[in-house]
Amino acid sequence: MITVVGTGTGAPLSPDARIALGRAGLVVGARRHIAAARLPDAIERIVLGPLAPALDAVEAYLEKDDKQQRGVVVLASGDPGFFGIVRALAERFGPERLDVRPAVSSVAAAFARVGLPWDDAVVVSAHGRDLRAAVNVCRAHPKVAVLTGPGAGPAELGSALSAGRADRVLVVATALGYPGHERIVRCTPSEAAARDWGRAVNVVLCLAEGRALTPVRTVAGVVAPPALWALDEDEFEHRDSMITKFEVRALALARLGPRLGEHVWDIGAGSGSLSVECARFGAAVTAVEKTRDGVERVRANAAAHGVDVRVVHGAAPTVLSDLDDPDAVFVGGGGRELPAIVTACARRARRAVVVAVAALDRVPAAREALVGAGFDCGGVLLQSSRLAPLPGDVTRLAAANPVFLLWGVRPAARSEGVDR
Predict the structure, then answer these.
(1) Distance between CA atoms of 18 and 118, rounded to whole angstroms?
(2) Taking the CB of residue 68, how many other CB atoms lie within 10 A of it?
(3) Is 219 inside any structural domain?
(4) What CATH number is given to the structural domain containing 370?
């Protein structure tokens, strides 16, 4: 049997944890956990570094110790089943061989310190993972807890968020539960980026403080995907019907695949209808719009739908160099600059580029830009006719302007799994 003991946030070990340690022949844990346990010299111990060798050593010990019935105790921080070592142990040895005794997680403790509930928070781990997903979740959601790690701490997170996220506050929780050492620091992303936080950071909360308290929830964590998408045009403020029609948006969204932890560009955003729809799926969205009234319209539509969209005033492809790389891009405008815009987007997109084109003459150049960037390219001409009423309680078909929709998918993206 492997007993997994959560040490809590500085709290002493429980009596039953002490009993388990007294019966153990092998104890595994971080150096600080083993030191705090004050083990007898006779007990074998493994200080955790790389996980695979430690698991190999545990397996060898269990095989050797099977007849003696002396178990293994693994010491871990907080709740070891919450982004912790329980997953690796269950995969290697099977859940039936684990006796897990959790303590308060660092996330729960951090939210308790600031007096906020966290059933509506999104929790994302940057420990041993690419920081991009955590950054994009923080951009898209008003209450996020980030589990940090080497190279992915408060400074790196703050640096990534300092551009275009002026409404976010970071709460850095360090040495939780250790009297005299615990610190709860509130700061802006820019202030976080300028500090050396040391090695005792437990978790970073990223909050849009005006929206940190939400109505009572039924389902914890991430909000479920929207029940409806490809919303009607009248759900958005727009000028002279200059808006991506819902038929086009429906297919564009299917090809973009916006999701939590990813970053989407909407180039030539216009009303921002596509930006809003992507944000409703949980993606971080940057809308690029060259007109000042268009910028305000995108912001108004995002606010009306309760989502975060970063709006950049400027013309593509010039302004794109200052933006973080996207996972997917929608190009809904461009004019004569369209080939250059598509080329610039295709160079930067990690996964997909979708282009809506009304002018037949521009389709070959846009397709050539996608193929030239190494994308697998497809496309369709959308011609739709909507039911429209006529006098006398009869109905006609009203044809909409045809639109070419092209899409390019990076070949490697087809086979990559998505860890969300």
Answers:
(1) 31
(2) 8
(3) no
(4) 3.40.50.150
